[in-house]
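Pasting as-is:
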Amino acid sequence: MRLIKESKIIAIILLIAIAASGLVIGQRFSVENAPQNVDILVDYNEMELLSKQSENDISWWLEEFADMGIYKIGLTEESLKTLTDSDLPIKAELVADLRKDTYWMSQASPEVLAMIEENVKDDFDVLVIAGSNEMFDFVNRAFEERFDGNRTVSLKTDNGGYILIDGTVKDSLYHDTEKIFMTEDTGFVEETDMVSSVIMYLNLGLLPEKVKLIQDAGCKVEPRTVGYTGWNDTQFLNDVTSQYEILGVEPDYWIMGSKAVPGYDDGTDALSQYINENDVTIGIVENTTQRQNISPMGMDQVITDTDYDVVRVFTVWPYIQYRYGYYGYESYEEIENSLFRAVVERNVRILYYKPMKETDDEFAYITDIQQYRDSFENLEQRLAKHDIGIGDVNAFEPYQVPLWAKILVAIGAGCAALLCLKAVFPIRERWMYILLGIGILGVLGAYFVMPEMAELATSFAAAVMIPCLTATIMIYEAAGIKERHERDENVFKLIGVGIIALIGSVIMSLAGAMMTAAPISSINFMLEQDIFRGVKLAQLMPLAYFMLVFVIIGLYLWTEKSKQTLELKDVKWVMNYNIKMWMVFLAMLVGAAGIIYLARTGHETSIEASSFELLARNYLEEVLYARPRTKEFIVAFPAVMLFVYSMVRNMKIFSFLFGLASVIGFTSVANTFMHIRTPLELGFARTGYAVLFGIVLGIIYILVLEIFYRVIRKRGSGSNA
């Protein structure tokens, strides 16, 4: 190709950058392909609710799950809220609410009234009323040992007692501001009522009877503790861990909550030390959007201090629990699909399981134990195909991409940009090397001044420029093929040429995908502590670039234009071109398709795939090692073959549309590798399947279009098709 021949040195530097990214990708392969297991933890509270709807008690259910090999039980520490909501003889109320309860105040003993009168100074305090000595001792011990004892006053009785906890305005929890209207529908007043207190949610410890019940069932307790700012210092953490030891609880995992890591008020050193000394692996919970993780305060520092001894956790959110009999399946299939995808596609290594529920009833659990047995057995078989077993989990090696590799990839992306620039503008070779030198200095400066931003910019530049360069080469090569072949060339010969063009384009796209992935293949991206941003923009820019280059080459091929670069008269020609109504409608259709295409990208989209499409995806997941991306094998990859075909057949509008669709494939390949959480081998397998299926569909599409072309030619109106 002329563009490469005229810029050999820049092309060689680009090849070196691709080789550097290949080395990084190889290192990441070794990290990802180390022996891996996935562990399954079951939520105790949900199992308890399930048991109450069944004919068997919680012990029976725990024993049955243990018999399936799922014996680790996630047990959340109790709080005043959980204790009050249970059947236990205890309740807790805001003092402000109790004072409004005239009946309770009239029945309270003089000692209790005196305690309230002497110690309550505002409405932010909480009074605990324990109806048994066990409940009184459990709560009183927690507040005395875990928190500031000066904030607690207690009154023990023969059958329990009272505990008054001093709260502050910072502990108060409020409803959203509520507007009150008059009958004339005019605003009258706004109210904001205090409804609860953080004190109600403070973690007080594991109930010994629950711990014993779990252990007696042959299961292992995996405790879950959450800290709240202002009540979360080293004293709190020390009591948490000492209670673990007293109860014989030895956690394998420390699954981070949503507020703050325990001990955070005094820093994170104490928690990091405990995790390191006790060989505990940190679990970080994936968000409901399947993008990044729930990030409590202090989590990043603990992860760094423990040298990334971390695994990702997928929790069965309520919307997944309800997917029993979903999409027309008979039972658990779609829930199993969600678990499978989390492990295989997103590097999740702990499944925090919650029992299945009826699709149309958020309270009704599935109580048939055989459904759970079949689901877990099938999941285990599917994971085995990916060499993933069920068992204790090991964290990934804390791999970090070397700086030299990031710099080389950044320079390579700059070289791709220069080649694209030369394809559009008539730039002399001397200026190309001047720009290259400036670019190298800029890259070095960026990595010195703002390294984190620079690595993201490098990945983004590769994700944009390599698809642009691939599109450029595709257009130039198709133009050359057009000039070397007659318009009525044998269709099967064009199919062969189109297949070669497709394979070459995908190979170059994969090179760009490696350059995109390489700078952000460090462990923090693999765990999705950090993510690549700008996916939609990276998909949009190559499309805009294609339109520019296609117009330039189109003018060269189909007008009197003598140069294959942009000239001032080209701009004038475009500005003065007579636009017909069918072109406006076509532009509107293309624009609408583009909006849908971008909106469907990612998990935050409001446009969802149809049930049929989702069922088809699930089928491909089951029968293939990896599911190819739908837009690649149905649209984008066949479009490369159609682009070559339509260029030779002189079908200008079709050439433009097929070329535009082709670029979607180039950006899609890069997009596949932007998701660093997805194992590399899955990305390569997906692309390989998409190429195979795309070739088959491309042949079918071309043969159908050939019939259309022949009909039009016979009617004598095919010159501008």
